[in-house]
Give the backbone structure.
Amino acid sequence: MSTAIPVRTVCPYCAVGCHLDLLVENGRVKGLEYAVDSPVNAGRLCAKGHAALEILYHPDRLQHPIQRSPSGWKPVSWDHALETAAEKIRNIVTAYGPNALAFLSTAKGTNEENYLVQKLARVVGTHNVDHCARLCHASTLTGLGPMLGLGAATNPLSDLSQSHCLFFVGSNPAENHPVAFRWVQEAKDRGARILVADPRRTPTAWIADLHLPLRPGTDLALLAAMLHVIFQERLQDDAFIARRTRGVEALRASVKHTDPTWAARLTGVPARDIVRAARMYATAPRASLIYCMGVTQHVVGTETVRACADLALVTGHVGSLGSGLFPVRGQDNVQGACDMGALSGLLPGYRPVTDREARAFFESAWGLPPGALGAAPGLTVTEMEQAAGRTVRGLIAIGENPVVTSPESRKTRESLQRLDFLVVVDLFMTETAELAHLVLPAAAWAEKSGSRTNTDRRVQWSPKAVDPPGEARPDWKIVIDLAHRLGLGQFFPYGSPEDVLEEIRRIVPAYGGISAGRLSQAAEGIAWPCPDETHPGTPVLYENHFATEDGLARLYPIEFREPPEMPDADFPYCLTTGRVSLHYNSGAMTRRSPSLFSRSPHLFVEIHPDDAAREGLRHRDRVRLITRRGSIEAQAHVTGSVCPGVLFAPFHFPQTNAITQNMLDPSAKIPEFKTAACRLEKMEGKGP
Amino acid sequence: MEGTVRERVMVRLERCVGCRSCEMACRVAHSRSGILRDAVCEEPRPLRRIFVEQAADSPAPFLCRHCEDAPCVRCCPTGALAFDEESRLVVYGVERCIGCHACVMACPFGVIQPGRGDGYVVKCDRCVGREEPACVEACPTKALVLESRFLSERRRRTAIQFVQAARGGPRVEDMLASGSP
C-alpha cells in the first residue's frame, strides 16, 4: 500500500490549465496521477504534461546562486547574491536614474509573482516592466481593448463544444492545446462546421470542413473579404449591430472594395472558398472565432485582431454560450501576468499608465508620494533589448529567455552583452543566463504556491507540493528579498503568496472576490471578473454590455497592408514560424526533457514537394536557410502540408529566431515573426 | 467477428527464442500489399506493432495489452483511443487523432509508437479481420498464443496429470508444487 499523497497542481505548460495530481511521498514527487475528476481536463493530458516531472528532478536544475567571475561561474550565497544585485541596482539608479533599469517578468510565474515584479519596478520608479505577452498576444490587448473593453477570451474553451461553426485563424490547438481540442471534436460530433485558415495543413486542419491555405501575412485580406461577402449578402446581424455596436458605417465603407476576387489574388485562397467560409460562419446560429499567433505576430497584428473582432461583432457571435472570440493564450499564466500589469503601458487591472486617475489610485494604494509614477509608458520587451547597453544599463530577467524568443537573436545577444548588469532568475542555465552577471535559481511550479489564470480567465490555485532543489527559491521570495535589500521593505510587507493575493484583491476589481481560501476550495477555479466574495465568477463576457465606457463595442475599419518583406528573386520563399506538439516556447524546458527531446530532436524546416524538387532536396537532407539577417542550418522535411512557396520552422530551437524579422507592430510592438523572405541552399550530407 | 469479444494475445516469455518472426509477420500484415515480397519494398516502410526486446538476458515480445483501465485511453485528449466494450480491445480511431503523442508518453509498456512521416500513432489492432493475429500465426514456439487456446491447453494438460495420478503416478499435489503443468 503506497503512502503517497496526491497534490493537485496546475500544469506548468500551456494555457489550458490542466490539473496534474502529483503523488508525493517523503517530500519527493514519486509519480503522476491523471486528475480524472478535474473539470478542466478530466484526466486528459498531452505529451508535455506527461513529461512535466522530468523538469522537476532534472539534473541540470540550478541549485545555487552563481556569479560570473574572471575564472568562470562561481557559486555564491544568497546573502551575497542579493546584496550584489541590490548594490548594482542602486548604483545604476544613482548614476542613470530608474529608467536605466528594466524588468522582464514571466508568464510562467504566478499572479502574485507578476504583481510583485511590476510593483518592484514601479516602486523603484520605472515602467520598464514587460513580459513575453509582448511576443504573443500584445496585439490582442491593443486590438480588443478599445473595441470590447478587455483583451481576453470572451468564453471558456469548453464552450467550443456548443458552437455550430468554429473558425480557426492562425491557430493550431490540436498541437498546442491538445487537451482543449476534445471540445472541438465534440462540436464536430454534433455536426459543427470547422473552418481553418492556416498556411499549413496542421493537425487542426485535418478535421476541417474547409481549409483555407492562405499566404502568411494575408489574414487581414481574407477577413476583409469575408466581411465584404457578409455585408453584400446581408448576412450580418443588424439587430445586434444596432443594439450593441458603434462604427458599422466606417467598417462597411472600408470593406466595400475588398471583394473575394481581390483577396484571392493576395491570399492564394480561391474566391469561392472565401465566400463559402463567410456564409458558413455568418449563418451559423452559434459560432466561435479562435485566433492565435498566426494573427497576432504581424506588423498588422492589431489590425488583424480587430478584423477578427469585427467579423464576430457584425455577425453577433459574441457574448453568449457557444458564441465567442477566443484569443488562445500560449503559456500557463500569460493571461494572469497581463492582468497583474506586468506590461510597460498598463498598471494592474489594465489601467493605462497614461491615465492620471489610475496613477493617483496606485500611488495612494501603494503608499507612494503623489507623482511618483511616470506618465509615459515604459519600454517593451523588444525595446528593452534594443536599448540594452545604451539607455538601459541593468536588466532583471525572470523566467524569460529573450536570446531564443526575440527576433533577430544575434542583435539581442549583442545588446544584452553590453549591459552593466544582467541578472537572470530561472530553472536552468538558459541561453540568456549564459550572458548574465548573476544567475539565481528559481523554484518550479510544484515547488511554490500561487494562483494562475488560464486562457479562459479561470483563476486556479496551485499549491506547493515539494521543496525546491538545493537552495532554489520561489520568484516571489526572491523579489521580496531584493526589495527589502533595496530599502523598499515598507512596500513589500508580505510573508506568503496569500498575503500578496489579498492586496491584489483590493487593487484589481476583477479579482476582488478571488481569495486564496476560496480558490483552494473551487475545483474548477473562478473566472474573472469576480468583484466580491459572493460573486460566482464570469465565464462568459459581454452577455449584456461590453466593458467600454458606454457599454457598446466599437467596430474598426479595415485597411490592408502587405507584409513588410515579400518574397522576391533573391529570397523566393516565405519563412513562417510556429510550434510543434512536443516542444514549448524557447525549449528551455522541453529541450531538456529527455522523453520529449528524443522524439523531436532536430530543428527542421517543412518544404513543399514541388519546392523541394526545384531545389534538388530530399526528405531529411541538410539545408541552409538564409534571410537578410543571417543563416541557419536545419533538416528538410518534405511535406505537402505546407503551401508551395512557404517554409515552416518551429521556433523552439535557438537558431530559428536568428533569421526572423525585427519589424514591430506600431501600437502593440509585437514583432513580425510569421513572415520573412528566405532562400534555401542544399548542404552536403544528411543530418543534422 | 466484429462486435464480439476479441481474444487477447498471451505472451509466454519463457518460450520466446527471439526469432522476430512475429515482428516480420506484423509488418507484413500492416503493409499496403499484405505480401512479404512487396512489403519489403514499400515506402514508407510498414511499421510493426510488436517488439521483441532483449531484456534481462532473454528475448521478450511486447505488444499492446489492451488494458481495461488503460493510461493511454485515460489521457487521450480527443478519445481517439478508447476501450471498446464489445470487443474488449483498446481501439484507435485515426480520424479523431491529433497526433499529440500523449499516449506514446503514457503507455507503461512502450508499445504505442509515433507513425512515420505523419503525426498519427501506431499500435496493435489485434489484426482486424483475422481470427488469429499474424504474430500468433507466425510464432514457431507458441510463445504467442490466444488466451482461450492457452487456457484450454492448460486444462487439458492438468487433466492428463490428474488422470495419470489416478492411475498410480506421482501425487497431483507434488506435481502442482513442482510447477510442472
About this structure: Residues 9-146 of chain B form a domain with the Alpha-Beta Plaits fold (CATH 3.30.70.20). Helices of chain B lie at 21-29, 36-39, 71-75, 102-106, 134-138, 147-166, 172-177.
